[in-house]
Amino acid sequence: MPAPSLTLCMIVRDERANLPACFESVRGLADELVVVDTGSIDGTPDLARAAGARVLEIPWPHDFSAARNAGLEAATGRWILVLDADETLPAESREALRAIVAGPATCAHALVQRNLLPGASGHVAVSIVRLFPRHPRVRFERPIHEQVNTSLEREGIRIVETNVPFLHTGYADLAVMPGKSRRNRALIEAALAREPDADPNLWFFHAASYFDEGEHLRAAGLYAECARRSSGRRRRLELAARIKQAESLWLAGRSAEAELCLPEGGDEPHPLVCELRAALAGAAGRLDEAKSWRERLLSCPDKAHLPPVALGPMKIRALNALAEDWAARGRKDRAVRVLRLGLAAAQGRVDAAAAAIGQAYAAG
């Protein structure tokens, strides 16, 4: 019997409500399912077995990489696809992945995780490696916010960036977020206590845990530490940390400090750089500059940015501010058209995150 082409590897706990949709989204694509259960009490393992999965039941090791690697050890496919129970593949993504796995398993592929936000408020896009060749030395690393990138790099396996999306609903339920945040922070702090110099990404995630709880000055200090530890080693992470440091300082009321540490915009500025520079310019009375930055924000592409952002809501805020600006300039006709565009985006009648919003604004 030939080896499977693609193994879906998952770790789960009490995911009976989510598993059916996840399994359905990979039907006809994954020909092996490996599920690592870390202590479910809702019948999740039985549901997974009924769907044809091989289920490994282990105690929770307080380490996401250890749990994921248990699944990798059991997999037999040429390719590995990693999803969580609250993630699904849209039909078009399933077809795109089918074409990839039909070829040789020589490269890893970064997919675009679309983290759906509560209500109809859009998504946050993150580029993350979730499809890669099965290899005995390709394993997840870090106890939290785990990734295979480092082991892929050691083995000389190239990572291909794609625009293939998958949907994640785990952030759509605000009620579960405080518990996740406390769990994550405890794992991060334990990891940093063991090896503070091991991975600057952990400092970024540590800062984010304080930012998400509104402790912006504490977050700013930790983002600065991440940037310092990334300097000369990981340029993209350093820039991302500086942008978030600036945002944290702005939210803490430290405008002058925020402007000093904010990176320049560049040819294709990060959306958050655009929004922050517009806010700083507006607060200082530099209204033409603020208007220019908001207009640049409208044309930012809907892709996985670092740091990740909710691009749709950002563009809606920019449209509302631009409408006020046009009204203040005596152009109420223009202000009305911009407001209508913002309303259409807010109601989902046009894609708020799309770069075409900038074209629609310019045409109006």
Q: Explain this structure to me?
A:
The protein has 3 domains: 6-168, Spore Coat Polysaccharide Biosynthesis Protein SpsA, Chain A, CATH 3.90.550.10; 173-263, Alpha Horseshoe (Serine Threonine Protein Phosphatase 5, Tetratricopeptide repeat); 277-364, no CATH class. Helices cover 49% and strands 15% of the residues. It has helices spanning 19-25, 44-50, 64-74, 91-101, 149-154, 177-194, 200-211, 216-230, 235-251, 255-261, 271-283, 287-298, 311-328, 332-346, 356-363, and strands at 6-12, 32-37, 54-57, 79-82, 87-88, 108-116, 123-133, 159-168. An 8-stranded mixed sheet has the order 3-2-1-4-7-6-8-5, with helices on both faces. Strand 2, helix 2 (44-50) and strand 3 (54-57) form a beta-alpha-beta unit. Helix 7 (200-211) runs antiparallel to helix 8 and helix 12 packs antiparallel against helix 13. The chain is globular, with a radius of gyration of 22 Å. The mean pLDDT is 93.
Radius of gyration: 22 Å
Oligomer: single chain
> Into which percentage range does the β-strand content fall?
5-15%
- In total, how many domains does the architecture comprise? 3
Q: What is the CATH architecture term of the largest domain? A: Alpha-Beta Complex
Q: Helical element count? A: 15
How many β strands by DSSP? 8
- Portion in helices: 40-55%
Uncertain spans, ≥5 residues at pLDDT below 50?
A: none
Shape: globular
Q: Describe the sheet with the most strands.
A: 8 strands, mixed
The helix-and-strand class reads alpha/beta
Overall pLDDT metric: 93
How far do the termini sit from each other? 62 Å
What is the CATH superfamily classification of the largest domain?
Spore Coat Polysaccharide Biosynthesis Protein SpsA, Chain A
Name of the CATH first level of the largest domain? Alpha Beta
